[in-house]
Amino acid sequence: MTRRISIFGATGSIGTSTIDLIARDPGAFDVVALTGGGNVALLAEQAKALNADIAVTAHESHLADLRAALAGTGIEAAAGTIAIEEAARRPADWVMSAIVGAAGLAPGLAALETGATLALANKESLVTAGPLVLATAKQHGARLLPVDSEHSAVFQALTGEDIAAVERVIITASGGAFRDWPLERLANATLAEASCHPNWDMGQRITIDSASMFNKALELIETREFFGVDPDKIEVLVHPQSLVHALVGFHDGALMAHVGPADMRHAIGYALNWPARRALPVERLDLARIGQLEFRAPDEARYPALALARAVMDEGGLSGAVFNAAKEEALDAFIEGRIGFMAMAGVVEAVLDRMSGDRSLIHAAITLDNVRAADQMSRLAAREIITTGL
Ligand SMILES: NC(=O)C1=CN([C@@H]2O[C@H](COP(=O)(O)OP(=O)(O)OC[C@H]3O[C@@H](n4cnc5c(N)ncnc54)[C@H](OP(=O)(O)O)[C@@H]3O)[C@@H](O)[C@H]2O)C=CC1
Ligand SMILES: CC(=O)[C@@H](O)[C@H](O)COP(=O)(O)O
Ligand SMILES: [Mn+2]
């Protein structure tokens, strides 16, 4: 029987890896919707190759190009954030959430409301609105499956286990592009240098977040929300090889580690085939050849993002939405050359400080409207702080 599939963020790193997997199994899937942003040529090519029902670009200004590229195919073309949400409401069995940033939240919620299984790469959904995402899944009988490599690893290590027996969850961090740089050099790190990941081939934004450890900061919150583990039971361990993705420690002292190649097609394929395990086109690790795996504690001075994430988990409420929005604005400013690499954490901290004064906003009910309001106010605060200086 064919499965109906939609991919949000089809033109990105996770999206193209997902398509790589489904294209290997022609006839097994009916593709409902594919969405992208500025890369309309690739989106149209994917839609034609997979005979999708509809292709949607986030940008209205690209609609004419998308329509032209799909002319005569019978594939619908649409544009804009509302059109993406509408596409997410089309019935599908399995939906990949791989838009980058807070823009991924609303389509993911819309997909969950249909009862679809949501494969969640978009970690920002859980950071900004974890309780809302989980409640929406529960209310509509939808399943949420992790795709982020560490969370897929934890999920796999927990299969068949009692969550009450978990003593700690350890997520690993490569240390990013600058893990071996002297601290004093980091202030002058360039965009090109920050955009090279030592192990993973990913989109530019998450690659820079890996270098600053904001990616791991988001993942701490993602772990807390996905698995309901107390923050003081979640640890980060620097592991330069990125082969052990996470470990789960149990009350009896056992540590279950998930080991695999640095290839997201494993985690995507696991979510695609779950609860079955099927053959996947990923490297089989030769541990004898690899020889050594290294681990070390993260240096908190080098990575202030980690302490900020712990403060966010302590605060709760909408502080995750504030944190993520401030981080996205700081990252934009770094990419555009308006602030230095090390200034990003200062911007996020200043926004958190400023917004924490507004208790009614931070502790408002976690609804999509309130998340959007906190997101918008935090972006404005971040822009002002970036413009006027810290
Ligand atoms: N890459 C990886 O290995 C991993 C990624 N993740 C997470 O998965 C998500 C996707 O990451 P990744 O694939 O690397 O990102 P990419 O930047 O490679 O791709 C992002 C996708 O989102 C689209 N997009 C960008 N902005 C918007 C917007 N405002 N509205 C709608 N669509 C938009 C892009 O379109 P276009 O390119 O056409 O402009 C593209 O399809 C992120 O949340 C990331 O943290 C998690 C673990 C690993
Ligand atoms: C592949 C994946 O899941 C990324 O989130 C990865 O974890 C990034 O690497 P870092 O460990 O450097 O953040
Ligand atoms: Mn990850």
UniProtKB/TrEMBL annotation:
Pathway: Isoprenoid biosynthesis; isopentenyl diphosphate biosynthesis via DXP pathway; isopentenyl diphosphate from 1-deoxy-D-xylulose 5-phosphate: step 1/6. InterPro entries: DXP_reductoisomerase, DXP_reductoisomerase_C, DXP_reductoisomerase_N, DXPR_C, DXPR_C_sf, NAD(P)-bd_dom_sf. It comes from Maritimibacter fusiformis. Residues 260-379 form the DXP reductoisomerase C-terminal domain. Catalyzes the NADPH-dependent rearrangement and reduction of 1-deoxy-D-xylulose-5-phosphate (DXP) to 2-C-methyl-D-erythritol 4-phosphate (MEP). HAMAP family: DXP_reductoisom (MF_00183). PANTHER family: 1-DEOXY-D-XYLULOSE 5-PHOSPHATE REDUCTOISOMERASE, 1-DEOXY-D-XYLULOSE 5-PHOSPHATE REDUCTOISOMERASE, CHLOROPLASTIC. It comes from the Bacteria. Belongs to the DXR family. Its cofactor is Mg(2+); Mn(2+). The keyword Isomerase applies. Residues 144-227 form the 1-deoxy-D-xylulose 5-phosphate reductoisomerase C-terminal domain. 1-deoxy-D-xylulose 5-phosphate binds at K123, S149, E150, S174, H197, S210, N215, K216, E219. It catalyses: 2-C-methyl-D-erythritol 4-phosphate + NADP(+) = 1-deoxy-D-xylulose 5-phosphate + NADPH + H(+). Its EC number is 1.1.1.267. NADPH binds at T11, G12, S13, I14, G37, N39, N122, E124, G203. Mn(2+) binds at D148, E150, E219. One of its GO terms (biological process) is isopentenyl diphosphate biosynthetic process, methylerythritol 4-phosphate pathway involved in terpenoid biosynthetic process. SUPFAM superfamilies: 1-deoxy-D-xylulose-5-phosphate reductoisomerase, C-terminal domain (SSF69055), Glyceraldehyde-3-phosphate dehydrogenase-like, C-terminal domain (SSF55347), NAD(P)-binding Rossmann-fold domains (SSF51735). It holds the Pfam family DXP_reductoisom. This is 1-deoxy-D-xylulose 5-phosphate reductoisomerase. Keywords: Isomerase, Isoprene biosynthesis, Magnesium, Manganese, Metal-binding, NADP, Oxidoreductase. It is an enzyme of class 1 (oxidoreductase). The gene is dxr. One of its GO terms (molecular function) is 1-deoxy-D-xylulose-5-phosphate reductoisomerase activity. Residues 5-130 form the 1-deoxy-D-xylulose 5-phosphate reductoisomerase N-terminal domain.
